[in-house]
Amino acid sequence: MNTQQTIRLAVIDDDSGFVTVLSKRTEMAGWQQRALSSAIPPEELVAMKLNALLLDLTVLGEDAWGYLERICATLPDLGVIVCTGQSTVAQRVRGLRLGVDDWIAKPCHPEEVMARIEAVSRRRRRSRGEIEAGPVVVGELEIRADQFQAFVGDGSLDLTRREFELLQLLADSKGQVLEREAIYQRVWGYAMAHGDRSVDVFIRKLRQKLEKRSSRWRYIHTHFGVGYRFDPEPPGGGIAPELAEEASSSMESQADSQVVHSSFTAG
Amino acid sequence: MNTQQTIRLAVIDDDSGFVTVLSKRTEMAGWQQRALSSAIPPEELVAMKLNALLLDLTVLGEDAWGYLERICATLPDLGVIVCTGQSTVAQRVRGLRLGVDDWIAKPCHPEEVMARIEAVSRRRRRSRGEIEAGPVVVGELEIRADQFQAFVGDGSLDLTRREFELLQLLADSKGQVLEREAIYQRVWGYAMAHGDRSVDVFIRKLRQKLEKRSSRWRYIHTHFGVGYRFDPEPPGGGIAPELAEEASSSMESQADSQVVHSSFTAG
DNA sequence: GGCCTGCGTTCACAGGATTTTCACGGCTCA
DNA sequence: TGAGCCGTGAAAATCCTGTGAACGCAGGCC
After folding, report:
1. Residue A226: its chain B contacts at CB < 8 A?
2. Which domains does chain B have, with CATH numbers?
3. Which residues on B lie below 8 Å from A266 (Cβ)?
4. Which of A105, A132, A136, B100 has a CA-to-CA distance to A220 between 20 and 30 Å?
5. A96-147: per-residue pLDDT in tens?
């Protein structure tokens, strides 16, 4: 089950011997490694699309904890591994609670460091779902990821990049309620800032382009206080609004909630 | 967001001193811990619905590696942490590559062990796109934490956020009597003000949406002067005690029918 | 370079949905 | 039987979402 994965790794460490030895091994393993001599803003790390970040606390200097915290908050999907020569239990606990994934004591063997990076990165396999397959069809909607285009019934939708990625995510998670934070995380690639309304705005744009008439939204449903759910109503959907409420439960049981929950058994 | 996560942990270790100390801390943190003296089949672990498994390799004896491999294959969503007194780099690398998430050297500080378990669970959860656990099924009720949705028999319940979180807590504590303070603490995330009736109001809302009208409530039972208990079975003495114990999962039986009060660490 | 255009982001506000509070009456238990 | 507790309906307060519009930025064009 352990398919070889290509890992994009950045190392922040001034111990050039260690970095050199490690980079040789990672290169042999086919990883992409980037050596950084000092801390760089989390925003720049976002652009690097890393799987993992290995850093020596001593390089960070004064604001090491603050930096760690910003990193973990901004890039919750990034595997963060700290290595230090000396550290106390309290420090390690603090770091791990802050969001660090692993904490290694130096001196350490490159092979073990790599194994730990792999362990931490294993999760990436599934999280950023590989979405290359054939066209996705949901109701009257058809999404062609390869062509970067979506079609609804008669014509093609003219979607911008973000709109398309959002739609793709929604359609890919048909039937599931997605939290705003999760949407933002997966479409934008980093954590949502407090008070950010971008998701809402893009949902509106999508709705405008996607849905015909608007007594009730047809594809994108709001879950108050939570997020949004993408689900096409049963075809032929001429339910009168006042009847809809009565009918909804039985309706949904048939069409709506065939939502497969493959959740636990990933087998 | 909500409070810290409740972790369901099993420990396979014969070092009773270590296990005892750890269990005290985990209990204080509100985790559910189960101590096992020897390896048990992966299938039985599945039933425990664990977040994490902490094990000492030496307890496993001969077939330690085979057992580890089976565990990791059968329960890909379980966080596995190995702790050993002595180990070589090769052993650690082998374990980590096999699917083990973290490898800790003994002696180790309980607090750090817990922090590492948290880190591993956090990561596991993220990898599934914030999926907490598989669908929880209680009687005719099914709760999908990942989707913020609950289904009862024929259709899906339309629950608000608080309602859902309350239901989730209740179902997760099936059979236990929960004090109002404890409920409030764990759903709202902070202490309940004197005279606050919010819990009662939300219990009513849940009952309205959950239960068919009948003389007695079917799922949520009131314990006068104490709180509420969630149980699809008839209250008190519907089934014989020994059967009841058999029926509930082994993890839950230990806490079964005992009052849980608000001994939660604030913050 | 300067201008135009399209895109993504941010802001403010109104309308609604949800949550909290309150009052009253029925219920439980000593 | 009485005091305290719980269920309930509804008002009040709070919070969330939909929406229009403005802003800043980058790329294309003259």
Report:
1. 148, 161
2. 8-127 (3.40.50.2300), 136-253 (1.10.10.10)
3. 76-77
4. A132
5. 999 999 999 989 999 999 999 999 988 544 444 444 456 778 878 888 887 7
